[in-house]
Amino acid sequence: MSAPGCPDCAGSARAGFRFCEGCGRELGVRKVALPVHDPVAVPQCSTCGERRYEGGVCVKCGSPKPIPDRFEEDLGSVYVLTDRGISHSRNEDAVAAAVREGDGIRVIVVSDGVSTSQDPQAASGNAARAGVDATLAALAEGRCDSDAVMAGLAAATAAVRGMSRTPEYAPSCTYVSAIVRTTPVGTDITVANVGDSRAFWLAAADPSASRRLSVDDSWAQALVDAGALDETAAMNDPRAHTLMRWLGADGSEAPWSERCLQRMTATEAGTVLLCSDGMWNYLPEAIALAGFTVETSSQAAARALADFALNSGGSDNITVALVPVPALLEPGVS
User: Fold this and answer.
1) How far apart are CA 303 and CA 74, in angstroms?
2) What is the per-residue pLDDT across 136-156, written as a single tens digit (0 to 9) for each?
3) Which run of H or E residues covers position 223?
4) Is 265 within a domain?
5) CATH of the domain at 189
6) Does the residue 173 lie in any domain?
7) Other residues' Cβ atoms within 10 Å of the Cβ of residue 94
8) For 24-36, what is each residue's pLDDT tens digit?
């Protein structure tokens, strides 16, 4: 029997190898990273409808080649979407995800570039891709989910810090990641974060059981932790979104807090949501977010969430990643 072919180069993929010897593609893993800044699909000119461009302008009417506002991808058990929003001239968010084909383990990273830093879109893109790749590598080595998700965070931190060329050049971003693994006793969800991009558990049967899984590294969270204000009042403080921790050359080599790692095991049906603050700014409560994911597909839920943020003002980039989680079956039930 011949070896299975590589899906990218059609070369043989040797059993037991993680990467194709022909093109280097990682085998047995489906991955995506968005936004795609130079998509293969040629966009239609918004002025005349032409699809041919030279030098970045339409060959027919001279209008600039449009930049897509929204990118989305369906990996089957993970749906990711990122949208530029209304106010920003570019998308500084990034999302990357992977699904291992053998065991269905899902790895997701959402990163939000810090707009006041240089090249925030490059920082978030590097963090998201490095985080997913390093997490997958750690899992392939047999490391536990907690170690693997932290390996991804460490790699993302190093990737962003490595971008710095001068003391004044410090691209920065936030980071939230998750490993979602189905086991015989439930679905293990392992989360790590730095900054204020968030992870949520959205329960299907009882939305009131939904909750946030990550802890922000923000001024608002510091006020709540100090007992100075409750969360609602803290978010109304003009400094609420000021970051206390972030990934960047002007941050720490290990910027995470002792609370950055969170775990839960779900036995009921629901959805894991990772998102940037451009989404949760308009829907900060888990129970409200859960209403968008009940009895609908991940695609429909992701689009509805992004549209809600746009219709609420769209003042920031919007990124969501949804991972559906089934209920734990009773013993003997198939």
Assistant:
1) 12
2) 999 999 999 999 999 999 999
3) helix 219-225
4) yes
5) 3.60.40.10
6) yes
7) 30
8) 557 689 999 999 8
